[in-house]
Amino acid sequence: MGGWWSNSIALYAEAAHMLADCASLALAILAIRMAQRPASADRTYGHRRYQTLAAYTNGLALIVLTVGVVVTAVHRLLDPPHVQGTIMLAVAVIGAVANLCAFLALDGASSLNERGARLHVLSDLAGSGAAVAAACLILFFGWVSADPLLSLALSVLILRSGWRLTQQSAHVLLEGAPPGFDPHAVEDELAALPGIRGIHHLHAWSLTGESPIVTLHAQLTAGADRREALTVLVKHLRHKFGVEHATVQIEDDVCAAPADEEDCHQPAHHTLKAG
User: Which of 37, 88, 151, 225 could form a disulfide with 73 if both were Cys (CB 3.0 to 4.6 A apart)?
Assistant: First the structure.
C-alpha cells in the first residue's frame, strides 16, 4: 500500500484499532444477546459466560494488534519515511471525534464484556490523540520520529490494558474466586454464626466476574436446627458477601466426603440446596 497513508504508523494503528472496535462491539452485542437466552438442560447456568468469553477474545485481539504496531513502529524508527503532517492531522482529528462519541456512548460499562468493548474504543481514542500530537510535531518541528515514538509509548499502555482484560476474563473462565472474595475470611465469619460449628470445602467462582457463586459444607453444633442453620447461612452469604447462588451441604457430624478425598464436590445424600 503506497502513498501518504502508508507513511504514518499512528494512522495505521488507528485504522487497525477502528476495525477492531467494530468487531469488538459486534462481538459484545452478540454476547449480550446470547446471555439473555434461557437456561437449558445442557447449559444449566444459562449463557451468561458468553460475555466473559467475548471479553477474553477482545483482550487477545488488543494484544495482537498492539504487538503488530510495535513491530512496525520499530521498523519506522530504523528507516523513517516522509510523512505529510497536514493530511495526517486532518484524518487524526476526524478519527478522534468519532472515537470520542463512541467512548461516551459506552459510558457506564460494568461487565467484563462491556469493559472490553469500551477498552477497545478507549485505545482507539488514545491512538487518535497520539496521531494528532505526532502530526503537530511533524508540522511545526519536522520531527518525523515523533510518529513511531508516540505509537510505541501508546502501545505500552494499550498492551498493559489488553493484558489485564485478558487476565481478568481468563480468571473468570478458570472459575477463580471473584475479586475481593476471601474464602478463608468467609469461612471464619460463617463458622461464628449461631448453630454452626465449622465451615469447610468452600469454593467460590462467578459467571461474569461479578456476583459470586458459592458451594460449601457446614457442620452444625449439637441440637442445631438444620433448616434454620441453612436459612441463616444463605441470608448471610447473600446480604454480607453478595452471593448470587449458594449450594450448602449440611453435616451433623464428620464430613460426608470419603476419607481419602482431599476435596469434595459430590453432594451427599442429605445435601440441602438454596439459591
Answer: 151
